[in-house]
Design brief:
Length: 499
């Protein structure tokens, strides 16, 4: 049942597919237009700086610094901004995705890859990144070397001056020799000053040696530091795309398939959350109400011809209607009288007249009662003739009943008067039903919708209550309310699907 309901919903919403497919194809076409071939240009840089820093200047005084990771230096914001000005179509975010910077496990070679739809632009950007990186890192390293050279020269000059001054002070503090063989002894205070100055001189001489050695190492290594960062090869313009553009036919086929899939998902979601009844299984599962046969599927043409009294044979669409009428007729013959109330949840289709006409043509003495004052359609569709001069067993006149063109079919109109001043109402009709059941084999009541109290007043006097349910028109919530009301009064009802 569920699968069939979804299939019917899919067929019913095929018009939605006619809207989704063009939209999906348009989206696929736009994707094809936006997708182009991509080219990759690459260049590599030899990183000699880490080795030179560790080996060319072994002094512990000079501490040159080099980055541990170079990716951030290659894609620095000023560099990306300059590229964006040169190529406005490439945003900063797109440049970050297009540029790939990697290095080997020993951090000795730096590889720069640039992917773009234009091969010349990819090569240009890769070479620009390499040049900017080498220039910036070389300048930073040269700046450090220049700083240490200047600082070491200043320290050497300062230490040399300090050593000379201390040596002069030592010569001054030593006592003069009066005789060649004399060894004058300085005073205790002079001895302390002399020892301090001598200790300072020794330390300064050692530091002076280290500073001169460090300065010599830097000056010797300056030519080597000119090649701290070397571009091994420049990026070349490629004529072979890395990722060729997708075929338009394949993209459009995928877009159409996605459109169909989207339509199926939408149909399932719409049907799953639909507030309307979709199939008979829902009625039996949610309301515990039985279903009469199959759907009463009668077209407008067949409906008009049946009302006019023309028999239609050979139409499989009417098999359900004929089968149900025969069942009602045989039940009336078996029980002597059978009263049927046709009602609905909120709005009801006019099928009471069809059943009355067919049962009357089958030989059953049939009465059609119009109890729906808001939509008294059945009587207007029949050819109503003069009133009947009948009386009940108690002597009550039944001039309110009208004859029709069919000798076995009679109608009790909605505007009928039981007496001169008493109109026919849903309050007086239940009291009149026992008298009418003595005169007719079948009584069909075209009642109002079940959500009205008038319909529930007619229920105790009838033998069978039939709900006319419209698939995908009547709501599940209304059916649950009606089923709860039937359970409260102990009423057994049956449902009949109508289009």
């Amino acid at each position: 049942m569920e699968l069939r309901a979804y299939v019917e919903g899919y067929v019913r919403l095929l018009w939605l597919l006619l809207l989704i497919i063009p939209c999906s194809l348009e989206a696929g076409w736009l994707y094809v237009q936006g997708e182009t071939a991509t080219y990759t240009a690459s260049t590599s840089i030899l990183l000699n700086a880490p080795i030179l820093v560790d080996t060319a200047v072994p002094s512990t005084i000079v501490k040159l610094s080099v980055p541990t990771s170079y990716a951030a230096q290659v894609t620095a914001p000023p560099v990306l901004t300059a590229i964006n000005k040169r190529y406005p179509r490439l945003s900063i975010a797109r440049l970050k995705m297009a540029i790939n910077v990697t290095s080997d496990s020993f951090n000795r070679i730096l590889l720069i890859r640039v992917t773009d739809s234009k091969p010349k632009a990819a090569a240009d950007i890769a070479n620009y990144l390499a040049l900017q990186f080498v220039a910036k890192q070389s300048a930073s390293l040269q700046h450090e070397l220049a700083y240490y050279q200047q600082w070491l020269q200043q320290e050497i000059t300062h230490l040399t001056s300090e050593i000379n001054a201390l040596n002069e002070e030592i010569q001054t503090l030593q006592p003069p020799q009066t005789k060649p063989a004399d060894h004058p002894v300085p005073s205790p205070q002079q001895r302390i000053i002399l020892n301090t100055d001598q200790y300072t001189v020794n330390n300064d001489i050692r530091s002076l040696y280290l500073y001169r050695q460090a300065l010599s190492d830097i000056q010797s290594a300056l030519p080597l530091f000119q090649k701290a960062y070397v571009i091994q090869h420049e990026a070349k313009v490629s004529d072979i795309p890395v990722v060729p553009p997708p075929a338009a036919s394949s993209v459009l086929a995928i877009a159409a398939a996605l459109g169909v899939l989207l339509h199926v998902v939408m149909v399932i979601v719409i049907d799953y959350f639909s507030p309307f009844l979709r199939h008979k299984g829902e009625v039996e599962r949610l309301a515990k109400i039985s279903i009469l046969n199959d759907t009463l599927n009668i077209s407008g043409f067949e409906y008009k011809h049946l009302l006019a009294g023309y028999p239609l044979r050979g139409s499989w669409r009417l098999d359900t209607f004929y089968s149900l009428c025969r069942s009602l007729g045989s039940r009336a013959l078996k029980e002597g009288n059978h009263t049927i109330l046709f009602t609905g949840l909120r709005q009801k289709r006019d099928y009471a007249a069809l059943f009355a006409i067919f049962l009357a043509r089958s030989g059953c003495r049939t009465l059609l009662i119009e109890a729906n004052r808001e939509h008294p359609a059945p009587g207007q569709l029949l050819q109503i003739m003069e009133a009947c001069n009948w009386r009940t067993d108690t002597g009550m006149p039944l001039s309110c009943i009208r004859r029709t063109s069919s000798p076995s079919l009679f109608v009790l109109p909605v505007n009928a008067l039981l007496t001169q001043n008493e109109p026919l109402t849903t309050v007086s009709l239940p009291a009149l039903l026992p008298e009418l059941q003595k005169l007719f084999q079948v009584i069909i009541i075209d009642g109002p919708s079940f959500d009205r109290a008038d319909a529930r007043l007619l229920v105790p006097g009838v033998h069978q209550t039939i709900f006319l349910l419209q698939k995908r028109r009547d709501r599940v919530k209304a059916l649950k309310v009606a089923a709860r009301q039937c359970q409260d009064v102990g009423l057994q009802v049956q449902c009949l699907w109508v289009p």
